[in-house]
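Moderator note: this is an archived Q&A kept for reference. The question asked for a predicted structure of one protein chain; the sequence and the answer are reproduced below.
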Amino acid sequence: MALVLCVLEITALVVASLMMKPSFLLSFLPEDVRIAAKDHPEPPKSKQILAYLIFAIFMIAMIGGIIFVGMDGIRSGCGFWKLTLRFMVVLYINKAFDILVQDQWLVMTVGFYKKIFPETADCEGWKNRGFNNKKQIVRIIAYPFLCMMTAGLFMLH
């Protein structure tokens, strides 16, 4: 399930990024890049709506994947800790994919967003591979607690 969600996420990200409102997309990028691209023109509203629809479909798929993992765990007789472990595997595989493939490869190595925002080509932020380390560490620390809460909710039902 984790790998399916990773494929859906990268597909949605690459396709929707080309049509999203720049301010939303820039919020995930280094600060100097955000400043350099703040006046980047917005795509037509119809493309923005399509981008957010793609993003919404991915979010529904992510929630559906978590529900599937939980329901399958309950059907398989998993207890609280085994169900927590299942959720952790899904989220940590997804987080590793996010860090390695999306942040390090797509953003930093390939320069995908430099192509969308050419006015940012000379920004130092593109060289800072740790631009969002704090956000990632907070999520990595929070995941076990989120997984325990999710497992607890499934155990109640």
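Archived answer notes: The two ends are 21 Å apart (CA to CA).
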